[in-house]
Design brief:
It contains seven helices and 13 strands. By secondary structure, it is an alpha+beta fold. The protein has one domain. The longest helix is centred in the N-terminal third of the chain and has 18 residues.
Length: about 290
């Protein structure tokens, strides 16, 4: 019971932070450069399967979130990267009425940069452009995607994907200790628990002046797991992982294939979720 409470409390904290809307948008102009920089640096771990990686000359530790389903067993040790971001310093969702009043497209980028007082060549401008382009890329076969800019629109999308009469909830990775180590070996401490979810919606944080998520749902079979991990430095993580059983439609340049040294369609690809990402699943099937 204690472990379950520890898992859910950080998630509730995250959701509360997301709905704490700011008093006016001007004060959220991505002034937290560290937050923006980290989100940009680690965007590869949250992007969908059709994105390509062209800079794999050497292995970036932040790519070490992928594994195969055969690794999902007690006692297995593997190197994993977990970004440590303070949710209180991350951009929050705007009310839907306010978010909907702000353009969200690459065509409007010059206007948006002027609106947020960002110079064209600033890190913030680069982050915004990359996020907008990711949100506008066509989905792969069997995928439905959407970039909600408000909590209400995220819930509407999840509701549409999971079923109009299906109650649902979110699961997320929870850090049970205060380790500051980003990359280390972790060992699976207990038998992973499958969260049986015939349908799921994964939502990944994207760098933007206010909260924007990349949410997507795939028709192919996916499995969701809760995995208890122990790090070399004593760190404890209740991690959420998703295994994509069919990768045949993924780009061969997807970073996971370089990490795992496999090809599309030859193996299921699993990955851990950062703590500020959400996976929406039917309530009756969650653990």
């Amino acid at each position: 019971m204690g472990s379950g409470l520890a898992f859910w409390c950080p998630l509730l904290h995250l959701l509360l932070l997301l709905v704490m809307c700011v008093q006016g948008i001007s004060c959220r102009k991505l002034t937290e450069l560290e937050t923006t920089h980290n989100l940009m640096k680690h965007m590869d771990q949250r992007i969908p399967a059709h994105h390509s990686s062209s800079h794999m000359d050497h292995m970036d530790p932040s790519h070490m979130i992928f594994f195969t389903i055969n690794n999902l067993k007690v006692g297995k040790t593997m190197p994993i990267y977990f970004p440590k971001r303070n949710p209180s310093k991350s951009p929050r969702f705007l009310p839907r009425s306010e978010a909907d009043s702000i353009p969200f497209s690459t065509e409007e980028l010059p206007h948006l940069l002027e609106f947020f007082s960002f110079s064209k060549n600033s890190p913030q401008a680069k982050a915004m452009e990359d996020t907008l382009r990711q949100c506008e890329i066509e989905p792969i076969k069997g995928e439905t995607k959407f970039c909600p800019t408000s909590l209400e629109s995220m819930l509407d999308f999840s509701h549409g994907m999971l079923g109009p009469n299906t109650p649902f909830t979110a699961v997320a990775t929870a850090h049970l200790t205060n380790s500051t180590t980003l990359f280390q070996n972790y060992t699976i401490l207990k038998e992973p628990k499958e969260i049986y979810a015939p349908k799921m919606v994964a939502c990944h944080t994207m760098p933007y002046p206010y909260a924007v998520f990349y949410c997507h749902s795939q028709q192919s079979v996916n499995k969701v797991y809760k995995v208890e991990l122990g790090g070399e430095d004593g760190d404890r993580v209740d991690a959420v992982a998703v295994c994509h059983l069919d990768t045949s439609e993924w780009s061969p340049n997807h970073v996971s294939f370089s990490v795992l040294r496999i090809k599309p369609g030859t193996s299921a690809v699993c990955h851990f979720f950062a703590a500020d990402n959400l996976v929406w699943v039917p309530t009756s099937t969650s653990v």
